[in-house]
Amino acid sequence: MRLNENILLLGEKVVLVPYTSEHVPRYHEWMKSEELQRLTASEPLTLEQEYSMQQSWREDADKCTFIVLDAEKWQAQPRTTEESCMAGDVNLFLTDPGDPSLGEIEVMIAEPSCRGKGFGTEAVLMMMSYVSKLGLTKFEAKIGQGNEPSIRMFRKLHFEQVAVSSIFQEVTLRLTVTEHERQWLLEQTSHVQEKCYRDGLSESR
């Protein structure tokens, strides 16, 4: 999705930046992990296929992807590369052509040292707040039944379980953004700064 191709979102724990070709090598290394393949229901890709996937995610109108960076590491040194600060990614998919108000959200904190620090929580909140400009009022998360940490995280973000698939061994959780939830989301993300991606690189550090 080109909506966010020049957007940087600066939070307290994480920085969200567009998924570009410079992030692909690190992402490709992550996805060699059998654990991550299992948790994300993904098949291993070649590096060339990964570059093609990155390009399609950027172009497709029904996908919005940000790479999650460790904000502390990213801000520590001006010359630090984004690749060395990568923690994971957060994605939003418009899965139902008949309901443009519904988006499926997923987050992956791939870097083991970045887990358990609230990175995923802040990344999801920032993504939901950002894409609200698209008119989305319902969010779904489909999570493997064995991924208890992720299920707990989404429940803390007010998602409720609406379905269980024994075939795919996953649960579906949903958040409907009422006025009350919208105000809560605004409060949770009031600290987030939206900047122009390339212009914001030097200003934010």
Structure description:
The structure is a single chain. The protein is of the alpha+beta class. Helices cover 37% and strands 28% of the residues. The protein has nine helices and nine strands. A nine-stranded mixed beta sheet has the order 7-8-6-5-4-3-2-1-9, with helices on both faces. A hairpin with a 4-residue loop joins strand 7 and strand 8. Helix 1 packs across helix 3. It is globular, with a radius of gyration of 16 Å.
Q: What does the overall shape look like?
A: globular
Low-confidence stretches: none
Query: What's the number of extended β-strand segments?
Result: 9
Mean pLDDT over the residues? 90
What's a concise summary of this model?
The chain has 205 residues and is of the alpha+beta class. The chain has helices spanning 24-30, 34-40, 47-59, 71-76, 82-85, 119-131, 148-156, 179-188, 197-203; strands spanning 7-10, 14-18, 63-70, 86-93, 102-109, 138-144, 160-165, 170-176, 193-196.
Highlighted features:
globular; 205 residues; 9 helices
Layout of strands and helices, then pairs:
Blueprint: E1 7-10, E2 14-18, H1 24-30, H2 34-40, H3 47-59, E3 63-70, H4 71-76, H5 82-85, E4 86-93, E5 102-109, H6 119-131, E6 138-144, H7 148-156, E7 160-165, E8 170-176, H8 179-188, E9 193-196, H9 197-203
Parallel strand pairs: 5-6
Antiparallel strand pairs: 1-2, 1-9, 2-3, 3-4, 4-5, 6-8, 7-8
Helix pairs in contact: 1-3
